[in-house]
C-alpha cells in the first residue's frame, strides 16, 4: 500500500463487515444437524442444540435470529419448546421454523398455533431451505427496525421510557428466575434548568445528547440498557451485576461525565456538567415488585442531591 492509498484508507476506511445472522439448529438426530449445518455455515453463525431444554438455555443466554426446530424429540418436544419461547419476553420475537419428516396438516396447525412461522419437510431441498430462511430473516430485520424506532428517544438516541419500563419488567422476571441481582441507576444532570437558562434550549438539547452518549458508552454488556427516564433524568439497567461491580460502574459513569468537561458556568457544584446518581441493587424475590427497585434508586438519587450532588449514593449491596 503506497502513501496515497494509506491516506485514502485513513480518510475513508472500509465499512465494518456486517454481522452474520445467528441460526440455532435444534434436533436430536446428528445426521439432520450436520446436513443443515453444511447448508448454512458459510453465511451464518450456526449454533446447535440436541434437546429442548438445551435450546431454551441457549436462547435465553444468546438469542439467535432464527430457530430451526425439530418437532419430534425425546423429553421436551418441539411444540413445547416453541410455546415456552413465545411466552418469554426475551425470545418471543424470534422466528421459529419447524423441521419435520411428517406431512400431517394437524401437526402444521398445532405448530402454527404454538407460534411457528413456517415448516420445512425432510428430506431437505437445499435451495428451498435457503430461500425460506432468507425470507424470514429479512422479515425479522424489518420488524426489529420498526420496533427499535418505537423504543428510541428521538432527542438522545438512547432507549425511551416505554422501552425502559418493558425491559425492567422482563429483566426483573429473568433475574428472579435465576436468583441473580438486578441493578438500577437513576441519574440526574445537576442544575440542568440553570444550564438551559444560561445557554439556551438548543445547547441544552446538545448537552442531553452528549450525556446520553457518555452513559451509553459505559454499558458494554448485551443486556445493559441506558434510557432517557424523563427531562434531564436517565436510567441504566444492569442485570446480573454483583454489588462491587455495580458501584464501580456507577463511579466510572460519574467520572466519565466529569472528564468530558462540558462547560456549565451557572452550576453551583462545578464549572462543568456533573451528575447525581442513585443506585439500587435487588435480587428479586417472589413477593417483590419492580417498583420497589425504582423507589429505592429514586430515594438514593434524592439523597445524592441532598448531600451536594456530583456523587453516587448506594453501595451496591443487594436489598
Features:
319 residues; alpha/beta; Rossmann fold; Alpha-Beta Plaits; 2 domains; 5-stranded mixed sheet; 11 helices; 17% strand; elongated
Describe the structure.
The structure is a single chain. With 319 residues, this protein is α/β, with parallel strands linked by helices. The chain has 2 domains: 22-145, Response regulator (Rossmann fold), CATH 3.40.50; 161-313, Reverse transcriptase/Diguanylate cyclase domain (Alpha-Beta Plaits). Helices cover 48% and strands 17% of the residues. The protein contains 11 helices and 10 strands. Strands 2-1-3-4-5 form a 5-stranded parallel sheet, sandwiched between helices. It has a 5-stranded mixed sheet with strand order 7-8-6-9-10, sandwiched between helices. Helix 8 (192-199) packs across helix 9.
Q: Could you give the order of strands across the largest sheet?
A: 2-1-3-4-5
CATH architecture annotation of the largest domain: 2-Layer Sandwich
- Average pLDDT confidence is 90
- The CATH H-level superfamily of the largest domain is Reverse transcriptase/Diguanylate cyclase domain
Find the structural class using helix and strand composition. Answer: alpha/beta
User: Share of helix among residues?
Assistant: 40-55%
- Count of helical segments? 11
Mind telling me the C-alpha Rg?
24 Å
Distance N to C terminus: 59 Å
Largest sheet, described in full?
5 strands, parallel
Under CATH, the topology of the largest domain is which?
Answer: Alpha-Beta Plaits
What is the overall silhouette?
A: elongated
CATH class of the largest domain: Alpha Beta
Order of helices and strands: HEHEHEHEHEHHEHHEEHEHE
Low-confidence stretches: 6-10
Q: Please indicate the percent range of residues in DSSP E strands (runs of 2 or more).
A: 15-25%
How many β strands by DSSP? 10
Number of domains: 2
